[in-house]
Amino acid sequence: MNTTRRGQKFIAAAAAGALVLAACGDSDDDGGEAEEEAPAEEEAPAEEEEPAEEEPAEEEPAEEPAEEEPAEEPAEEAAGGGTLIWAHEQEPPDLHLDDPNNNLSITSWIRSAMLEGLYGISGSTEYYPELLDGEAELVDNGDGTVTANYVLRSGLTWNDGTPLTANDVAFTFDAVMAADGEDEEGNPAYVYLTGSRTGLDTITDFTVNSDTEFSITWSAFFAGWKGVMSEVYPAHNFSDDPVVAAAELNDALREFALADGSPMAQAGPMTFESWDKGVQMNLVRNDSYHGSNSPDAANTGIAQVDGVQINFVTDTDAQIAALTAGEAQIIMTQPQLAFEDLASSDDFTVASSAGPVFEHWGLNLNNVHLAKPEVREALAFAMNKADVMAGLYTPLFGDSLPAEGLGNVYWLSNQSNYINHAGDAGYGVGDADSARAALESAGYVENGDGVYEHPADGVLSLRVGTTGGNRLRELQQELLQDAYGNAGIEITIDNVEGGAYFSEKPFSEDALACAASGGAEGNCDVWDITQFAWVGGPWPGGQSSAFRSDSGSNPYGYQNADWDAKADECDATIDDTERAACYNELSAWVTTLEFDPEQGLFMLPLTQKPSFYGYTSQLSSAGVAPDAQGAGPLANVVDFAFG
């Protein structure tokens, strides 16, 4: 985690040359499937979409800035009390995280303070036993099935005093699996409780052995097994009939209230109190809380603050004003240029940590130039990640992120299994000479304009696109555009405003048809290079959906049956060390030419992209804020205290 106060200006000298170039474009888990992350406009930034376990989903763009409601008086700042105020730009439609109409990280971040699961996510984006009394025991049964034996911590309780037991875990599983249905096209439509059942749908046995002991058996090993039951719900609040309970729970989660209006039991350090829609939400301390089990928490007891008030402030300048005026103490949102002065203030501490979101440039393998491995390698050599880091990320996040950028698309820099594949291959260092040599080996010749040209395929001019309007991302493009110019590669910027970029460019129907068919169908000329972020998590296997041959989430056109088989092998590997190494090999396939000299190297990872998280000097201590689904700024709310 980076916890510093800095006076360094946001745009470093490395960016100065790029700033004169014009940008085309308008006003940006628990582990599991990767997701497209689409920033909204700078004045009303959107949250990075929540990392779901399975299907990628585009992030909801933020709404236009609205008129600000008058801010409430700052909470009393007394040690061991007071109300923590969090200023945030997006308000969820409700608190039902997996409702099809609700796909915002803010929902997950709020719920992390009120509900807990078997495993939590630490600041290093790794699982830790949360409700458990240590790691579950995983047993290979020798017949293809695998059983995990769990023991809950003693003394777990709901806020109404009811013990939290293994029966609550079993109830949660039964309710999720009972909520069946189909949409008009015959696809599963279990809109209750979870967006996907991957990892749950292969459970063949759930046995409760005592109040604290239970076991789960899968028909085959599921590599993301620690991510199941990321929240546990109170059985005593709902029907004994799982189908009825599923419907009841589905309704209750919207505002944590039962059908009779009474509150649903919660077991986190905070409980839901009230919600003034369009203005603020209030949580209060759970004085029955059984204590934090997070490795990041300094305080393992009840929270020190009396509660949390979340003020929904759509305008970035208004958020900053609230913090500087003492009307809010914390913020966690997408990085914005407007945070330059806030980051350099002596009264504000930047405490962002590297999270599961990573920026990349992805290449369309069906483009006539990019189909050549030499061209892709030239792009990898010429990319100057250090300039991007020094100009845009280090001023905000300090040493939270490696200065050389990111070189892996499965394990991220703050995870123990990280290997810098791209860096080890010599990529990402602005090596124009190696880039030129690669192009010339493929028959390209520099023309009179200083741009390489192929005798059959023409000038090496490529478009890069992203969600327009996020100045940080646009500057990122401009910096790289300048570096590529030094290598004789022409890059033009082709952005689309907001979330429309995804549906119009790499994830358009025509573009996906081209990718899935190897260029035989659809339109392969919709895009050349795409810049956006994927969201990962403690289980990196979900990233594979972005690269699988039969995946509707693969825009790049990568089609390799051997890679698909390797991905299946990785997911089926029980040993943690061997599985980690296997995922690293998958990353090397797509970020280098080592394993696939013809189709490999279509992913150019740039950097992790933490949310901008920090707090004012009104606080004497603050919690670590893991940037992931099921975590966020309130994951360690027990550690916040006023000075």
Structural description of this entry:
This protein is α+β, with helices and mostly antiparallel strands and 643 residues long. 22% of the residues lie in helices and 17% in strands. The protein is built from 14 helices and 26 strands. The protein has helices at residues 105-111, 166-178, 242-252, 316-324, 340-344, 373-382, 385-397, 421-424, 432-441, 471-486, 500-504, 509-517, 561-571, 576-591, and strands at residues 36-37, 83-88, 119-121, 127-129, 137-140, 146-151, 203-208, 213-218, 270-276, 280-285, 307-312, 330-333, 348-350, 357-363, 445-446, 452-454, 458-459, 461-465, 467-468, 490-493, 496-497, 529-535, 603-608, 612-616, 619-621, 641-642. The strands form eight sheets. Strands 1, 14, 18, 20, 22 and 23 form a six-stranded mixed sheet that branches. A four-stranded mixed sheet has the order 2-11-10-9. A four-stranded antiparallel sheet has the order 5-6-8-7, covered by helices on one side. Strand 9 (270-276) and strand 10 form a beta hairpin. Helix 7 (385-397) packs antiparallel against helix 10 and helix 13 packs antiparallel against helix 14.
